[in-house]
């Protein structure tokens, strides 16, 4: 049985590597088509080049960037509006075009909290992706964005409550950490065999390493702490958008 194709949609360059790098590498190693859409940062910025390097490491194709500005970094897309401020219909249509072009079996994005940090771009990327995943299969919506295509499943990258104490010990205290009850997690994926690729992809985001963001924290950690932080990925499976479609799962 062929391994399901996978399209990940994340807010910033580095989110794909941090939160789903293991699953992306795992699916690609099994022969699946994989790709990543990034909702913020422009294609002619330094972080776009870093994203291209990370995706090469993960075998996830070329960057697909919507090119909006980061909510907190205006220079991320000079002259462009913030992703959070862009018209919703516009952002959904542009993402629908990528979904219909790539035609994935599975999609991955941030959970409703925007993951551990709850960044506003993460939260809005979740909203836009949920809408676009449904709209992509409806032929009367956005007819200029390509032939309809319905992904069979949507997985939300998340963290269970039980994982947070251990993670705090590695990354230190934060003002807020968002996690979900353990029973909401429907897929716990051991990505240990793909740790080398995942870490290399995270560290490819060199500007984030340099400024001491999470990739920089990871760069300074010993191997056992990196393992604790990155070797497991957790997901919530969103119910199939069309009930008649067969269930499609992440590779186990």
What does the model show?
The protein has 252 residues and is α/β, with parallel strands linked by helices. The protein contains nine helices and seven strands; from the N terminus they run βαβαβαβαβαβααααβ. A seven-stranded mixed sheet has the order 3-2-1-4-5-7-6, with helices on both faces. α1 runs parallel beside α2, α2 runs antiparallel to α6 (195-203) and α3 packs across α4. It is globular, with a radius of gyration of 17 Å. The two termini are 13 Å apart. The mean pLDDT is 93.
Largest sheet: 7 strands, mixed
Strands of the widest sheet, in order across it, are: 3-2-1-4-5-7-6
- Count of separate DSSP helical elements: 9
Helical content, roughly? 25-40%
Low-confidence stretches: none
Structural class: alpha/beta
Q: Give the N-to-C terminal Cα separation.
A: 13 Å
Q: Mean pLDDT, rounded to whole units?
A: 93
Computed CA radius of gyration, to the nearest angstrom: 17 Å
Task: Write the element-wise H/E pattern from the N-terminal end onward.
Answer: EHEHEHEHEHEHHHHE
Morphology: globular
Total E-strand runs: 7
Oligomer: single chain
How much of the sequence lies in strands comes to: 15-25%
